[in-house]
Please model this.
Amino acid sequence: MQPRRRGRPGHDQDAVLAAAVRLFNAHGYDATSMFDVAESLSITKSTLYHHVSSKEQLLEMAVDRALGGLEEAAEEVRATTAPATDRLEQLIRRSVLVLAERLEFVTLLLRVHGNTEVELHALARRRDFDRIVTDLVKQAQTEGGIRADVDPATAARLLFGMVNSLVEWYRPDRGDPEAIATTVATLAFEGLRTR
Amino acid sequence: MQPRRRGRPGHDQDAVLAAAVRLFNAHGYDATSMFDVAESLSITKSTLYHHVSSKEQLLEMAVDRALGGLEEAAEEVRATTAPATDRLEQLIRRSVLVLAERLEFVTLLLRVHGNTEVELHALARRRDFDRIVTDLVKQAQTEGGIRADVDPATAARLLFGMVNSLVEWYRPDRGDPEAIATTVATLAFEGLRTR
Model:
């Protein structure tokens, strides 16, 4: 990336964000300095501060990319009138695609456990999302689409245990995201056992 | 823990290990020093070195507790003559119980990504375990017990995505481990959808 005062500021900020997230994931957020971010882009710290105001702003932007994708998916399924079971399945499938597409951002999000305002806000948004999933499971049980003998909160946690595991193992050569989304949905809703 | 030269060395080593793993999980392995471990036990560094020879030995013992539990479970199901699908289900259930019982050790294991000999050895044992799970899925498909339209390696990763998610959310007040093991097995083998 060349330092530029004019033109494509959005592009430059994306490049800065991508570089920062790579470093945060590799070495930890706390262990990464703004100097490290500047150095990895071969720009000066002063040029870096043309693009972003602080390390915390980079963290905020990164977790927003991850959460924004998941929240959009939740918003879209909320807008449909399909049975809750189908909406839940759609949300799971969409979430797998979001993870595959924004893997580095979600990886960072899932490691956020801290006590800064940005981190606490991200954790609160994660909890809101978890609540949407749990509520969908409950509604699907009320409608009779999902078996009544599972605890809704546990089911929601296990569903996203599968989805979130992508940050540990997903690579483009391990199947295309649509196929993985189908495998997750098949396992979760139909089960592995033949009948 | 009182420093003791005689009596219950095993107990003392367990206490040292538990304290070290708590610190490794809270602050990171690299960020934790032997001085930190000694201080958290209110013993001197010299007393600490009566119990363990190095920080790396503590890491090795900790990941061995986690991997040992999972490998024992794999060994036990290997010894039975049940259909592969039932052995896979048993292995999943047993793994949930191991995770709930050895949560701190498995939490540490799942964060191991480094390049020391101890870490590389732990990663190799994890890969061997993953291979056992994938092979069980394949065998179950050959026997016709598990649906043929899922990729065995992806299925194995998703099954352990669910199991391993316990390190993120399991607490004794969120259901007893046997009940969680049953929910995991129900979701994975029967699926959530009613029929």
